[in-house]
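Hi Y.,

Following your request, here is the sequence exactly as I used it, all 260 residues.
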Amino acid sequence: MDHRPQAWGRPRDDVYGAYDASYMHSNGPNQHTQSPVVTGTSVVAMKFKDGVVMAADNLASYGSLARFTDVKRIRTFADTSIVGFGGDVSDMQYLDRHLTELSIDEAYQPSAHTLNARSLHKYLSKLLYHRRSKFDPLWNHLLVAGLDEEGKPFLAAADLLGTTFTSPSLATGFGSMLAQPIMRKYVPDEESVANITQQQAVQVIRECMKVLFYRDARSLDSYSLAIVTKDGITLSENEKLEDQSWAFADRIKGYGTQTV
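Below is the corresponding structure, written out as tokens. Let me know if you'd prefer a different format.
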């Protein structure tokens, strides 16, 4: 009998035959990530007359398991812009390190020029498209917010294909279906942004986070909230939902609300 430690737990060769280790050696091409494993859900953002407010919960799910409850998915860039990450957490960490290196390089440039939000969004969209063209995409949906070169509020999105678009309000994941209708009531177009104050925008975003917690099984009542204006960035990473009410739950039976 083979008593070596590396043989412990293995069937006996003289009874069951030699161990077949061929499955450990792939004969095919190297494969890239085909689907995310640990993911973050919705990111919501909305313009107001002086800037942009953005929020994302602190949950990272391992498949359908709400596994990590302290993952911050909003990052600042050079004190001028904020980036919200939806999708794969490992790719988010890669992009976070990449943006940190880029910020350091920008800080040491002799011209002291810093990328504004519009330039940062364009840079990230090109990066995402480049990875997509290599058939090795970064499985993220990004929201980039800040001020543009004219000092006006800027908000835009980029997905894993490098597709970009901009709007007075944006959301990723379930937020695009559950939160967007709420935000569009207040900012249906660019002209309406001038009528929204910071306090109103924050209140709308808080309400969106509450609706997402009610309806999205992969969300959390702890979230990060960021506000970017010409005065800088305010980032709070441990906000909690307030005034929750689950009174509607006893009326839900099967699919949809029913009156008994």
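DSSP finds six helices and 13 strands in the chain.

Thanks again,
Q.
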